[in-house]
Design a protein that fits this description.
single chain, mainly alpha, Serine Threonine Protein Phosphatase 5, Tetratricopeptide repeat, two-stranded parallel sheet, 27 helices, elongated
């Protein structure tokens, strides 16, 4: 409440500088909002000079203070407060305000030297050009302005590097992040910078360079586990399965251990880079995976690579984590590595089938079927709804707005896939009649798909693929049972869904041949297998990738090449050609 006095103002501003640093250092959390203490200090300086600036914003207030307050003994305290103000603005990503402030704090000569360096970042140039005020022996500082300047340079380079990375300007991002890596920061922040450098190099199409940066991050701080997850992602991109699995295994083990208490880089450094850099892109890059996510990735990669026994083990471990309460462990949002839970169960069933555990696969699928039975209508009509906005998912059995249609389609696909897997499992167990029953349950669904939006196209394609595989599977079992006419109808229907599908076409030829309709069989053979060789392959390559839980079903539906059938058809065609010529 005392009026501002010029003789006491240097001490007052220095005490304010130290107290703000103590406040920041003791909170150990990111800086947010404005520094009200700095504003009060600037107003006190203006009051001492007979001026006021209550109605000014912070940028205008700084401009007025540096113009009005010209006393030599106040320049050093004001410059130190200016560096603190820059820290607050950096934390708010107000990079333009920081640059403008340092232009006010620097002389024309200093700014001239900064602009001489062509190609250098403007913000970094003006911060580096700022001359740190000398420290008076009678007014000790809890953190020197020189250290604060170094931290500001590192944070400015880091922040700008992240902005350029998010914008897709990778060479500029790489340069700025390299600048930040050479700055003044803790090991924790240095490891984060190297992790960001690795992600940048990966996006530039330089996986080996990315690995070097990510390994450097782990050398600096092995507790930087996001770097290890990015290492696994790079190895996955390179197709180095063993290295990827090793990285994921290390990550899972590290997540299971209690990390040591995070120690500050130095007890004497109150303002640190980590307090200034907290952007969404950094949060995304450094997102810490949960053990359940990593366990799922291990299972998924093993299944994709054909390591069935390992896949089953990892999937069962994951299911045990699921029983412990997965939703408390990991946020099921767009950033999670986990798919929807029914899809995980279907992948487990696929792994169990491939491992020969068919009864277990049937049990897992029954869980999916029972959980989705009441969530979908018996007949689902899917169409574009232009007259209704998207709305929340209604109650079970309803198919109202666009979002409920999508959810209903997902539930329908999961239930249909459950019956599909059960059909294949019973077929492997040698029970063709039960297999036919399960395939028929899937085919009993009615889903009328009119022209739909892109939002629903993926779900519709998956449903059509499941229907195709169910028809082929049931047709195969009809052949096993000697019911050749019913098999023929299923294969004909399959080709209506997917014209030119090689498996359906091959089984169609086989069914016709078994029915002694040799002329038709030979004609279909010539149509599908002696036409343009690239045509069928082109059709097969179209569309989106199949969900992982359907890959094994697709492999089981493939037609095993039959040398006797091919030879018989060729002989028949040869004989027919001779009869024609004679």
């Amino acid at each position: 409440g005392l009026p501002a006095a010029l003789p006491a103002l240097p001490l007052e501003l220095t005490v304010l500088y130290n107290s703000l640093l103590f406040t920041v250092g003791s909170s150990d959390s990111a800086i947010k909002g404005e520094a009200e203490g700095i504003r009060q200090g600037l107003l006190r300086a203006l009051e001492a000079c007979g001026a006021c600036g209550q109605d000014l914003g912070m940028e205008e207030l700084w401009q007025k203070v540096l113009q009005e307050v010209t006393m030599e003994e106040l320049q050093a305290p004001l410059h130190r407060l200016g560096a603190l103000q820059a820290a607050w603005w950096l934390a708010a990503s107000r990079l333009g305000s920081v640059a403008g402030l340092f232009q006010l704090l620097s002389t024309a000569e200093e700014l001239g030297r900064a602009h001489c360096s062509e190609g250098q970042n403007e913000l970094l140039s003006v911060i580096k050009a700022w001359r740190v005020p000398p420290e008076g022996a009678s007014l000790p500082l809890v953190q020197s302005a020189k250290d604060l300047k170094e931290i500001l340079c590192t944070a400015a380079a880091f922040l700008q590097g992240l902005q350029e990375l998010e914008a897709g300007n990778f060479p500029t991002a790489l340069s700025l992040l390299q600048e930040a890596a050479g700055g003044f920061c803790s090991k924790k922040i240095l490891a984060q910078i190297y992790t960001c450098l690795g992600c940048c190099a990966q996006r530039m199409g330089k996986p080996q360079t990315a690995l070097q940066y990510l390994k450097r991050a782990l050398q600096v701080d092995f507790q930087c586990l996001p770097a290890l997850s990015h290492v696994a992602a790079v190895y996955h991109e390179l197709g180095e399965m063993d290295a990827e699995m090793q990285a994921l295994t290390l990550l899972y083990e590290a997540l299971g251990k209690n990390p040591p208490a995070a120690a500050s880089s130095s007890p004497y450094i109150l303002m640190q880079t980590e307090l200034l850099v907290h952007t969404p892109v950094l949060t995304s890059l450094l997102r810490r995976h949960h053990p359940s996510e990593v366990k799922y990735l291990l299972a998924q990669r093993c299944l994709q690579d054909g390591r069935v026994a390992d896949a089953v083990e990892h999937y069962l471990d994951f299911l045990s984590l699921l029983q412990e309460g997965l939703q408390q462990q990991v946020p099921l949002d767009g950033n999670s590595a986990l798919p929807r839970i029914p899809e995980v169960f279907l992948e487990v069933a696929s792994a169990l089938e491939q491992a020969g555990r068919h009864q277990d696969a049937i049990t897992v699928c029954e869980e999916v079927i029972s959980r989705t039975t009441d969530l979908i209508p018996r007949v689902l009509r899917v169409e574009e709804r232009l007259d209704q906005p998207e709305c929340p998912l209604p109650g079970p059995g309803l198919a109202g707005g666009l979002l409920s249609q999508k959810e209903s389609l997902c539930c329908l696909a999961w239930r249909a896939a459950g019956y599909l897997h059960q059909g294949w499992a019973w077929a492997k167990l040698g029970d063709s009649k039960e297999a036919v029953t399960q395939f028929s349950r899937m085919l009993s669904f009615r889903c009328f798909c009119l022209p739909v939006t892109e939002n629903l196209q993926a779900e519709v394609e998956v449903l059509q693929k499941i229907r195709l595989l169910s028809l082929i599977g049931r047709g195969m079992q009809f052949l096993e049972l000697g019911r050749h006419k019913e098999a023929l109808l299923d294969f004909q229907h399959s080709l209506q869904i997917a014209p030119g599908d090689p498996a359906a076409a091959s089984y169609l030829v086989q069914a016709l041949w078994k029915l002694n309709r040799k002329q038709e069989a030979a004609a279909q053979w010539q149509k599908f297998f002696q036409g343009s060789p690239g045509e069928d392959g082109q059709q097969q390559g179209q569309g989106r990738p199949l969900p992982l839980y359907l890959v094994s079903c697709l492999e089981q539906a493939m037609f095993p090449y039959s040398e006797p059938l091919a030879r018989s058809i060729q002989d028949y065609l040869g004989a027919a050609a001779q009869d024609t010529s004679s």
